[in-house]
Write a structure and sequence with these properties.
By secondary structure, this protein is an alpha+beta fold. The chain has helices at 13-17, 44-53, 61-64, 113-118, 120-137, 160-180, 244-259, 278-288, 349-353, and strands spanning 2-3, 6-7, 75-77, 80-81, 87-88, 92-95, 103-110, 146-152, 184-190, 194-195, 198-199, 203-213, 230-232, 265-268, 321-324, 340-342, 345-347. The strands form six sheets. Strands 3-6-7-12-8-9 form a six-stranded mixed beta sheet. The chain has a three-stranded antiparallel beta sheet with strand order 13-15-14, with helices on both faces. It has a two-stranded antiparallel sheet with strand order 1-2.
C-alpha cells in the first residue's frame, strides 16, 4: 500500500491468505429434537382471536411507524399496505439511488427465535428458505438473490456442547444455501450473547437481497374482489426434507407468472399459528389492507403437481406462498368484501380489529 510515493504497508500475500493463526475447538452436537410449534387451542374462532392478540403475531404497527418509510421518496413497497395500511409487507423494496431508474433493491429476512431455541440446525435452514421465499413471492428472480447472515450466539466458554449451537446453525444454513444454489456474500457474527446465567436464543438471521423492477413487484394485500386464491406448499423428498430442485422450479414458474401480470398479491406462510400464523394468519393479514375477505371451501383445495395456467379450472398449488391472480384466471375461491369464514359462518374483519 503506497501513499505519496512511499510504501506505508507491505504484507506478504501468503500471510493474508492464511487468515491468521490456526484455531481449534471441540464440538459436540447432541441429538436435536424435532421442533413442534405451539398451537392455539379451541375452535377456529377462538384460535383466530388468540392469534390476533398474541404479541408474536399481532400488528406491531406502532413500532414500525417509528421509522419513516417515505424518506427519499424511493419506497416501492410501503411497510403497511392497502387503504387501511394494515397489511404488513414481508419485503422491503426501494429504488436504487440513480436518476430515472425503475430498478429496486429488495430485501427480506427469515428467523424464528422459538424454533432456534429448540433446533439450531432446522431453524437456520428454514431461515434461509423463508428469506428467499419472501423475495420470490415479491416477484424477484432467483438469479439476482444473494444472502447475508447475521449471527448472535451465547458465549461458548470453551464448552463443546455450547460450541455445538453455532456449529449446527451454520451447517443448517449451509445445507439450504447448497440446495438453493445461493451464496452468502457477507455477514456478521457475535458469540457474546450471555449475561450472568442468561443466554440469548441461538440466532442466525438470513437476509436475502435481490433486485427487481418496481412495476413488477408484488405486495401482500388483496387488491380487488372476485379474485381466486392459491396455496403452494414447499415440496419435500422421501425423507421429509425440502426438495430444493422442485422448490427452485416452482419459484421460477411463479416468477414467470409475476412477469406476465397474473399475480396480484402474495404472502409467505411460515410456521402454523403462533409466531407467524400459518395459512389462516397469512390470509388474515392479506385481507386487512383493503378489508377484502375470502370464502374458502375444502373442495376447492385440490393438490396438483404443477402451477395452474390460465386455462386450467381446478388447480391449486400447495407451497409456502399464498397468492391471488387476476379476474378470469379462475373463478373459484372468490374473496368477498369484509368477511372471513370460520366454523361455517362469516366473520366481519372490522369486528376482529376491535
Amino acid at each position: 500500500m503506497r501513499f505519496g510515493g512511499s510504501a506505508i504497508c507491505d504484507l506478504p500475500r501468503a500471510f493474508l491468505a492464511s487468515n491468521g493463526a490456526e484455531k481449534h475447538a471441540e464440538v459436540i452436537v447432541p441429538k436435536l429434537p424435532d421442533y413442534r410449534p405451539a398451537l392455539f387451542d379451541g375452535t377456529p374462532m377462538q384460535r383466530l382471536e388468540r392469534m390476533l392478540a398474541d404479541l408474536r403475531f399481532c400488528s406491531r404497527r406502532g413500532l414500525s411507524e417509528r421509522f419513516d418509510g417515505t424518506v427519499g421518496a424511493g419506497t416501492a413497497i410501503m411497510p403497511l399496505g392497502g387503504k387501511t395500511q394494515l397489511s404488513p409487507a414481508q419485503a422491503m423494496a426501494a429504488l436504487l439511488p440513480a436518476e430515472g431508474t425503475s430498478t429496486c433493491s429488495v430485501m427480506a429476512f427469515g428467523f424464528d427465535p422459538y424454533h432456534a431455541s429448540e433446533n439450531c440446525f432446522t431453524a437456520a435452514r428454514e431461515a434461509v428458505i423463508s428469506s428467499v421465499a419472501k423475495l420470490a413471492a415479491s416477484g424477484v428472480a432467483l438469479d439476482t438473490v444473494h444472502l447475508s447472515l447475521q449471527e448472535y450466539f451465547p458465549r461458548v466458554n470453551d464448552d463443546a456442547l455450547r460450541w455445538g449451537k453455532p456449529f449446527s446453525a451454520l451447517l443448517g444454513a449451509f445445507s439450504a444455501q447448497m440446495g438453493l444454489k445461493i451464496a452468502a456474500i457477507g455477514g456478521k457474527d457475535s458469540m457474546s450473547g450471555s449475561f450472568g446465567e442468561w443466554d440469548v436464543p441461538p440466532t442466525l438471521i438470513s437476509f436475502a437481497v435481490g433486485i427487481g423492477e418496481a412495476s413488477q413487484l408484488i405486495s401482500p394485500e388483496f387488491k380487488e374482489e372476485e379474485h381466486p386464491v392459491y396455496l403452494l406448499e414447499t415440496p419435500v423428498d422421501a425423507e421429509g426434507l425440502p426438495d430444493y430442485d422442485a422448490l427452485r422450479n416452482n419459484w421460477s414458474q411463479y416468477t414467470a407468472l409475476c412477469r406476465s401480470g397474473k399475480i396480484l398479491s402474495a404472502w409467505v406462510c411460515e410456521e402454523p399459528d403462533g409466531t407467524f400464523g400459518g395459512i389462516l394468519g397469512g390470509i388474515m393479514k392479506m385481507a386487512l389492507g383493503n378489508m377484502i375477505g375470502i370464502r374458502l371451501s375444502p373442495e376447492n383445495f385440490i393438490p396438483t403437481g404443477r402451477l395452474p395456467t390460465a386455462g386450467r379450472q381446478r388447480a391449486v398449488l400447495r407451497t409456502g406462498i399464498t397468492f391471488t391472480p387476476p379476474v378470469g384466471y379462475r373463478r373459484r375461491n372468490r374473496p368477498a368484501v369484509d368477511c372471513l369464514p370460520l366454523s361455517g359462518r362469516s366473520v366481519s374483519l372490522r369486528s376482529r380489529l376491535s
